[in-house]
Amino acid sequence: xxxxxxxxxxxxxxxxxxxxxxxxxxxxxxxxxxxxxxxxxxxxxxxxxxxxxxxxxxxxxxxxxxxxxxxxxxxxxxxxxxxxxxxxxxxxxxxxxxxxxxxxxxxxxxxxxxxxxxxxxxxxxxxxxxxxxxxxxxxxxxxxxxxxxxxxxxxxxxxxxxxxxxxxxxxxxxxxxxxxxxxxxxxxxxxxxxxxxxxxxxxxxxxxxxxxxxxxxxxxxxxxxxxxxxxxxxxxxxxxxxxxxxx
Length: 247
Description:
Elements: H1 29-36, E1 39-48, H2 53-62, E2 68-76, E3 79-82, H3 84-88, H4 93-98, E4 107-113, E5 116-117, E6 119-124, E7 129-133, E8 155-160, E9 167-179, E10 182-187, E11 199-202, E12 207-215, E13 220-225, H5 226-242
Antiparallel strand pairs: 1-2, 1-4, 2-3, 3-7, 4-5, 6-7, 8-9, 8-11, 9-10, 10-13, 11-12, 12-13
């Protein structure tokens, strides 16, 4: 059964709400326009997994309170890619405190697109990727073309959509980057809360990767490489074909 959000009024995590800007000197406005419709806003609700039965009942009576927002992008009919950490419930102690939780609270998260709860179909924790199935069958897209080996200083742009506000940020490919023991690609693109899961394109509209995080010390965006996202989808397709399930 589809689970609907009752209100989109309460967003506790600060995110940017700047309007879409399309003045890139590299990617043409047509390329940006072609891909901007594929980015979608993902509304998130967090709850303590260890709530007692009384608190759970009160939560159901009171409806769903939105805690945060992230971004995803369409990769097929009703299929959306975002970051694994968006749907994992694994937040830093600082963000837990912002949302009113204790540092040691174990959280569960629900993700919604256009007010309807999305289903997590597949995750890759190491690559920081998640594939969601959304309710709205009218949201469709062709499988994107992935750029598997970007060049140094290749011009890039990102299309984020936190809280239903599209934002374009531009920059350039920086190279391989190791952060907290994990390897990413990096780009000279500004990042902020709500950008997780955003697609990063080159000026031909090929997906270079998926925005994961931002290293504010070195001022680089961390990106899950497009080659990993491509394999992630290929593995999903192969598994779906071998296990089609009921229609």
